[in-house]
Design goal:
This protein has about 325 residues and is of the alpha+beta class. The longest helix has 19 residues, at about 295-315. The strands form 3 sheets. It has a 5-stranded antiparallel beta sheet, covered by helices on one side. A 4-stranded antiparallel beta sheet has the order 10-11-9-12. Strands 1-3-2 form a 3-stranded antiparallel beta sheet. The protein has helices at about 5-20, 25-35, 40-50, 90-105, 110-125, 145-150, 250-255, 275-285, 295-315, and strands at about 25, 65, 70-75, 155-160, 165-180, 185-190, 195-200, 205-215, 240-245, 255-260, 270, 290-295. A hairpin with a 4-residue loop joins strand 2 and strand 3. It folds into 4 domains: about 5-75, Winged helix-like DNA-binding domain superfamily/Winged helix DNA-binding domain (Arc Repressor Mutant, subunit A, Orthogonal Bundle); about 90-130, no CATH class; about 145-215, SH3 type barrels (Roll); about 240-315, no CATH class. About 35% of the residues lie in helices and about 25% in strands. About 15% of the residues are buried.
Length: about 325
């Protein structure tokens, strides 16, 4: 798995105080301590040499002293990074509260690992969070069985609601891993209905049942956790929507392209690639008149037809 920029930044911020406290430390020892190659440490040190205080004159840059013969390194000027980066009190309290919330969700995480992290945080001074409690929402009913199917490597039968098509399907899946991303929990599994790996949002699994058949071992698993599960199909033609102020959150929640500036009333026009026409119609209906379909009169007509039928159903005393 390739290293992220965040991982490298965290290591480099830790390298400066580590070397400052151990002048003459061997590059090989640094590589072993930080779990990377000696070549990667050398690249990090090269980058550190051009980092420093604003102004970035020679005297402002971190002064890394390398001993080529002995393969050692020292820091002559650390630009004020004299100690490892630590959580502030507020950050530690927020993290403690979040971990306690996770620990209260059955089957989602390794509780032993959570409590171990909590103990370390409280020892570091985050004990003030002991009085803070968050009542988590009721977990999805299928979460426990999903976790059990992963632990026991057993195939799972599920009845799943697909929001983009507004349909219920029954599937047999071989679980691979549990993901938490984009604010939701997902089961990544090989689906025998789709004959491919799919992601199932846990709170949309309406029923689940463990099967006796063992799950197939995946040939390959992508260790990266995606930031979001829905990625628009570039082959799908975009649809233009006018979003009034009450619906402008759509532009922040979904992947859209804003066309022009807001009008005098605060409405914006966006282009969106929907999962399906039916999904887009249901989205616009759910916004209660705060969104309009601009360039697809056929879809706009469907919105009108469904809204009219819904109003008629409300006005019919026999419905």
């Amino acid at each position: 798995m390739s290293e992220t920029a965040t991982d490298r930044l965290a290591r480099m911020l830790a390298l400066v105080p580590y070397i400052s406290r151990r002048p003459g430390v061997a590059i090989g020892d640094l590589a072993a301590e930080f779990g990377v190659s000696a070549g990667q440490i050398a690249d990090d040190l090269d980058l550190l040499m051009v980092c420093g205080l604003p102004g970035y004159y020679p005297d402002d840059l971190i002064d890394v002293v390398l001993d080529d013969e002995g393969g050692t390194v020292s820091i002559a000027f650390d630009a004020g990074i004299e100690r490892p980066v630590r959580l502030s009190h507020d950050e530690a309290v927020a993290l403690t509260v979040a971990l306690r919330t996770l620990a209260d969700l059955p089957g989602l995480v390794d509780r032993d690992a959570v409590f171990s992290a909590l103990a370390k945080l409280e020892q570091a001074g985050a004990g003030a969070a002991a009085e803070v409690r968050i009542a988590a929402a009721a977990p999805a009913p299928a979460l426990g069985l999903v976790r059990q199917s992963l632990d026991e490597a057993r195939r799972l039968w599920i009845r799943y609601y697909t929001a983009s098509r507004d349909t219920l399907t029954e599937r047999e899946v071989d679980p691979i891993r549990l993901l938490v991303t984009d604010g939701h929990s997902y089961l990544e599994a090989y689906c025998h209905l789709a004959l491919a790996v799919r992601h199932f949002r846990i709170d949309r699994i309406e029923q689940a049942r463990l099967l006796d058949e063992p799950a197939q071992v995946p040939l390959w698993v992508d260790e990266e956790v995606p930031e979001r599960m829905f990625h628009p199909d570039p082959a799908v033609a975009p649809v233009t929507l006018r979003l009034h102020p009450a619906a402008r959150w759509i532009a922040e929640y979904y992947e859209v392209q804003q066309l022009g500036e807001p009008d005098e009333g605060g409405a914006i026009v966006v282009s969106i690639r929907a999962a399906s026409d039916d999904w887009l119609v249901r989205l616009v209906l759910s916004l209660g008149g705060a969104a309009e379909i601009v360039d697809r009169p056929d879809l706009a007509a469907q919105v009108i037809t469904r809204a009219t039928a819904a109003l008629a159903a409300y006005s019919d005393p026999n419905s």
